[in-house]
Amino acid sequence: MNLARFPRIRLGHMPTPLEPMERLTKHLGGPKLWIKRDDCTGLSTGGNKTRKLEFLCADAIAKGADILITQGATQSNHARQTAAAAAKLGLACHILLEDRTGYADPAYTESGNVLMDRLHGASVSRRPGGADMQAEMEAVAEEMRGAGRKPYVIPGGGSNPVGALGYVNAAQELVTQASDMGLRIDHLVHATGSAGTQAGLVAGLVALNSGIPVLGIGVRAPKPKQEANVLALAERTMAHLGLPALVKAEHVVANCDYVGQGYGIPTEGMVEAVKLVAEQEGILLDPVYSGKGMAGLIDLISKGFFGKDQNVVFLHTGGQVGLFGYPQAFGLAADAAR
Ligand SMILES: *Cc1c(COP(=O)(O)O)cnc(C)c1O
To answer: What's the family (predicted)?
Structure first.
């Protein structure tokens, strides 16, 4: 596997640290918990989309783009990192935000990631929940082409075979890091949404014959749909890498029991997980993805899913800025309106 064949622009701080979570491990009574800090990728407070954008932006520039277009939910971390990448590369950026939650309070609609989208100079437009966001982006791109611009459309979450290369690269990085530390990783757990992170990890870990199983904790779709999305993208990513079809359905596992009422809607487990990790480790998770991912990990630990002596790595995918969009969820705001 030679990733250097693919155009890439460095945007992030890598390798990201792989650290033990000693107090959390003790608090939960094992397994041995580790954290891979992809919240520390550096670009505009970091997160997992930076790895994907290194390959996506290189492709955009190779194709002569002058503006990036992407989409996400109102508090999209992907949108924020895309706006920052565009700023760094001197490209314009237009973001379409979908109202997936119906929350109308100004913290949610204007603070957190939305504030940063604007700080990075992106223009922002909004669409109602349930809109066909890919079609909406294509329509905006068509209009821009008519006006002489050269748009490059990045799918939601940056999840296509080009973006997923970022997590093939992360798989390689993690395996090297663990072997340097003499660490046998028994399980890799992370929050899965638009599927590119898990697809890239699975493709990379299978291609490396690492034997490390990946467990995605879903934040939106039900399990059959999430697993089908990840598998399809992992297969396309292997093909893009020029590798044989080594990824099988058994390599793709998602647990979607921790979504709660829906994407971006807080759950009790998420709130507890965010508070616990903040208090035990001094690490901030986020309300939409890593908080629900950690809630799933904690619940599975309590159910004996992992051996006490196993080493379980939680991939922290970032998103802490989203906390500022959800002050009420943590019972910390004076106005507990929602
Ligand atoms: C986008 C995102 C994820 C999910 O990654 P996908 O590649 O979309 O599955 C997880 N955590 C955070 C913080 C994210 O922003």
So the answer is: Belongs to the ACC deaminase/D-cysteine desulfhydrase family.
